[in-house]
Design a protein that fits this description.
This protein is mainly alpha-helical and 150 residues long. The protein is built from six helices and no strands.
């Protein structure tokens, strides 16, 4: 049971770091889009986006996925997955966060190449997506609802 507790600690810390990146990088995109004409400002924002994405986001995402997989194994692997319907919906939400992560990387590259024409308003709305997904994940983890009858 001690391995489970340590994996849970690692998972929560990694997930928190990953979510911090997913919350903050779109905010940098807002600033980038709204100050596109200020090349000095944009050079600083490009550095921030790059470091945030590659040095915080990627390691945190990988640690989240690895520790989460470890938790499933410790909980019984396939048998646990068969008996816990809620986790399948959580997997869909996780896939949404992974897609969002890669989409952030796409936008970051577009900004770096001077090709992103989306507005600050777009990125303000885009910035809300991980919050909605987080609400769903927290609900599922806390309440672990039974969506299907066995």
């Amino acid at each position: 049971m001690e391995a489970y507790q340590w994996l849970k600690v690692l998972h929560i810390l990694a997930f928190t770091s990953w979510m911090a990146m997913l919350f903050y990088i779109p905010r940098l995109f807002v600033y980038h889009a709204e100050h596109i004409q200020n090349s000095g400002f944009n050079e600083v924002v490009k550095i921030q986006e790059n470091k945030l994405y590659y040095f915080i986001g990627w390691p945190a995402m990988l640690a989240t996925l690895i520790s989460g997989s470890g938790l499933i194994v410790v909980m019984g692997g396939g048998e646990y997955l068969k008996s816990s319907a809620w986790i399948h919906i959580k997997f869909v939400l996780i896939l949404m966060l992974i897609a969002y992560h890669f989409l952030c990387g796409f936008f970051m590259k577009q900004f770096a190449q001077g090709k992103c024409k989306l507005s600050g308003k777009f990125f303000r709305v885009f910035n809300e997506i991980p919050t909605l997904v987080l609400i769903g994940i927290v609900y599922l983890v806390v309440f672990q609802p039974a969506f299907w009858v066995k």
